[in-house]
Amino acid sequence: MLRTHWTPGPAAGVTGPVLVSVTDFRISRLHDLPGVYRAGLSLRRGWPHLPGAVGMWLWTEPLRGRCGSVAIWQDEQALRNFVAWPDHVTIMRRYRGRGRLRSVTWAATQPDRGIWAQAHSYLSGDDTPTS
After folding, report:
1. pTM of the complete model
2. Which of 71, 73, 83, 98 has the fewest Cβ atoms nearer than 10 Å?
3. ∠ at Cα 46 (1, 116), nearest 5°?
4. Is 8 helix (H, G, I), strand (E, B) or coil?
5. pLDDT tens digits, the chain, 131 residues: what are they?
6. Cα atoms in the Cβ-side hemisphere of radius 13 Å centred on 16
7. Is CATH 3.30.70.100 correct for 2-123?
8. Residues paired with residue 69 on neighbouring β-strands, in sequence order
């Protein structure tokens, strides 16, 4: 699994409870994967300006036609705002029906880069992570 470096958001210095969201998009046709991944990169460029965004990684398994994100949010409202962000909505509409999306969220006691290990476990097919 390949992943980007950690991208901090404006809430990167937050301490205490956070919300983790993990997405796993399995593309139906491999030739769509580069476009999906580029779309994720374009959203990542806006990350430093998203209120409540603590930090994130993008990941991919190109030969398996999978990609997604592991994001840490200050709270559930920050995640909801991102989901409703017009740039995100446009991309979701563009790629709707081109694969299968699986996602999970969980509360963590603090923003910790060790969250990646929990997310990786979920993405590898293990049980839903717990904090």
Report:
1. 0.89
2. 83
3. 30
4. strand
5. 999 999 999 999 999 999 999 999 999 999 888 888 888 888 889 989 999 999 999 999 999 999 999 999 999 999 999 999 999 999 889 888 899 999 999 999 988 868 998 999 889 985 554 44
6. 4
7. yes
8. 23, 58
d(CA 12, CA 8): 6
How many Å apart are CA 22 and CA 123, to the nearest integer? 8
Q: Could you give phi then psi for residue 103, rounded to 5 degrees?
A: -150, 160
DSSP notation for 68-119: EEEEEESSHHHHHHHHH-HHHHHHHHHHTTSEEEEEEEEEESS--TTHHHHH
Structural tokens at position 101: 């999306």
